[in-house]
Amino acid sequence: MLAPYTTLGLGGPARRFVEAATAEQVVSELAEADRTGERVLVLGGGSNVVVADDGFDGLVVRLASEGVSVSRDGEQVIVTVEAGESWEPLVARAVAEGWSGLECLSGIPGLVGATPIQNVGAYGQEVAQTIRCVRAYDRRTRHVVDLEARQCGFSYRDSAFKRDPGRHVVLAVTYALDVSGLSAPVAYKELAGRLGVEPGERVPLARAREAVLELRRSKGMVIDPADPDTRSAGSFFTNPVLGSEEAERLEARAPGHPRWELPGGSVKVPAAWLIEQAGFPKGYTLGPARISTKHTLALTNPTGEATAADLLALAREVRDGVREKFGVTLVNEPVLIGCALDADPE
Ligand SMILES: Cc1cc2nc3c(=O)[nH]c(=O)nc-3n(C[C@H](O)[C@H](O)[C@H](O)COP(=O)(O)OP(=O)(O)OC[C@H]3O[C@@H](n4cnc5c(N)ncnc54)[C@H](O)[C@@H]3O)c2cc1C
């Protein structure tokens, strides 16, 4: 069963499952599967997937490659990390060593290799700001390639990897971090408030990390086996980014709604606000699936009794309710494996 390999605890069996301990093994497993036409699912920490109850009819390659190498480039430290390393210990090490640029990404589960896939981000920081290059196996050309950050097509919770799923398998990621005891300028209002500073100010790295961890814990966003709200895939929906026409339509339906103004006239709207205003409060349940009692954006499997079908039924109800009330269609952030929210009728 794949359920134990996911933070939601969902997912049926895999036809075949291997743990790849080196990048070479990852490449050889993928090359062989592609040669024989076997379907492949690359799995990291399973913290951003919903795997179908029927499981995966193919080969699951779970990344377990380890290794971190560090060098200097002027004022920066260059850290190259194997895809199978866990993310959170890397952030903890960066903070302890005085490497600035990852501190606001404290407490995010999963493995390093997945961070470029959806351009992992939180509290005003995202990995696109520090990734220098990504080493990947290109299943189309059957070559290992080194992609510079500009070739990765990063945008909000998105990348060229996510837009062309299955083509690249990330083998290692290189981050360029400033050697500084201070955080990057605090870009997120809530975090600045927690730290008692103005947005744009810098604080000692450890203080930034602690504040982020406190905020995340209060929202059930740090995995804790004792906290059923953390049996999730993090935020289930991305914050919708609306073009000017869509934004005007939403303003007509919800005058003065919260928003972040983006360059070019588009606006990003907090999905959590839309969900709550559409009548889905924290703790809302549908069968054994539940909206987190701490954060409206997280859909959870609190007792471990939900199926993927239960969770998706809740996701669908929320998405449809928001669309009906506000005319905005929420998009799921986790990758759905062998299952789907039904097609968008609009
Ligand atoms: C409690 C909680 C809080 C979270 N908070 C945040 C947050 O603040 N910000 C945020 O951005 N995300 C957050 N997430 C989502 C998730 O942790 C991240 O997206 C993380 O990077 C996923 O890593 P993973 O190794 O678990 O990936 P998985 O879930 O295993 O995989 C996710 C997708 O990436 C693909 N993939 C994984 N590894 C590779 C690889 N090496 N090469 C190619 N494809 C690969 C998989 O095939 C799958 O499609 C949160 C999740 C949870 C459970």
Walkthrough of the structure:
The chain has 346 residues and is α+β, with helices and mostly antiparallel strands. The chain contains 8 helices and 20 strands. Strands 5, 6, 7, 10, 11 and 12 form a 6-stranded antiparallel β-sheet that branches. A hairpin with a 2-residue loop joins strand 5 (68-73) and strand 6 (76-82). The protein is globular and about 55 Å long. The model has no long low-confidence stretch (mean pLDDT 95). The structure holds flavin-adenine dinucleotide.
Secondary structure topology:
Blueprint: E1 14-20, H1 23-36, E2 40-43, E3 49-51, E4 56-63, E5 68-73, E6 76-82, H2 87-97, E7 99-100, E8 121-122, E9 125-126, E10 131-138, E11 143-148, H3 160-163, E12 168-179, H4 189-195, H5 205-218, E13 232-235, E14 241-242, H6 244-253, E15 260-261, E16 267-268, H7 271-277, E17 285-286, E18 289-291, E19 298-300, H8 308-326, E20 335-337
Parallel strand pairs: 1-4, 2-4, 3-20
Antiparallel strand pairs: 5-6, 6-12, 7-12, 8-9, 10-11, 10-12, 13-19, 14-16, 15-16, 17-18, 18-19
The structure holds flavin-adenine dinucleotide.
Shape: globular
Order of helices and strands: EHEEEEEHEEEEEHEHHEEHEEHEEEHE
Strand content: 25-35%
Radius of gyration over C-alpha positions, nearest whole angstrom: 20 Å
pLDDT < 50 runs, ≥5 residues: none
Beginning-to-end CA distance, first to last residue: 36 Å
In short:
The chain is of the alpha+beta class.
List the main descriptive attributes of the protein structure presented here.
binds flavin-adenine dinucleotide, 8 helices, alpha+beta, 25% strand, 6-stranded antiparallel beta sheet
